[in-house]
From TrEMBL:
Substrates-to-products reaction catalysed: 4 Fe(II)-[cytochrome c] + O2 + 8 H(+)(in) = 4 Fe(III)-[cytochrome c] + 2 H2O + 4 H(+)(out)
PANTHER family, A to Z: CYTOCHROME C OXIDASE SUBUNIT 2, CYTOCHROME C OXIDASE, SUBUNIT II
Family per record: Belongs to the cytochrome c oxidase subunit 2 family.
Predominant location category: mitochondrion
Residue ranges of every copy of the Cytochrome oxidase subunit II copper A binding domain listed in the record: 92-226
GO CC, one annotated term: mitochondrial inner membrane
Organism: Friesea propria
Protein's name in the database: Cytochrome c oxidase subunit 2
Cofactor dependence: Cu cation
Superkingdom of the organism of origin: Eukaryota
Annotated gene: COX2
Amino acid sequence: MATYSSLSFQNACSPLMEELIFFHDYIMTILILITVIVGYTMVSTQTSKILNKIMIESQPLELFWTITPTFILIFIGMPSIRLLYMLDEVYTPLLTIKIMGHQWYWSYEYSDFLNTEFDSFMTPMTPTSELSMIRLLDVDNRMVIPFNAQIRALISAADVLHSWTVPSLGIKTDAVPGRLNQLNFLVNRPGLYYGQCSEICGANHSFMPIVVESVSSLSFLKWMKNNSS
């Protein structure tokens, strides 16, 4: 989860997040080039009298700044549309999990297994807490999934609007009362991935974190066997 002075993205841990970071870098490259060219042109027009005379009522220049933005928008729009389709693509899931938002905790139900349902509350920090705990982000029950497996999450809410978000996986889906929203994702390596509710949902909105634990398929089956009632 390392970032550069807390300004960059978290490390990508899913193909979707890798594509999002690549698209961000691609757009930033274009924006920097445009900023440099426009800035250089503005400074030049203020310091060069000859250039000013050439640019006044210049038909080729007007043609250039009309056509060039069209191509720039095409270069930005095509990858953007491709990425939007990738984010909404529905794959055949190996595991389905139902996620419910409450004031102020999350509950998880593994629909493919019998009697596997639990609530996930934030773990409060105390003087005796383990040093490895992360303040305001650790929970008592993590959502455990196998890595390199396509996961489908069905997300809803029991009371008010919530939003289930894990930045390092590049996923964010609103939890709307009375409605099921579907989310598909794949985690490509084991680890712990932290998130929080991203929709203001009440007084304790900041205290309903999300922890996704990605493990091997064998470890997942052992965890499921131990947690099935």
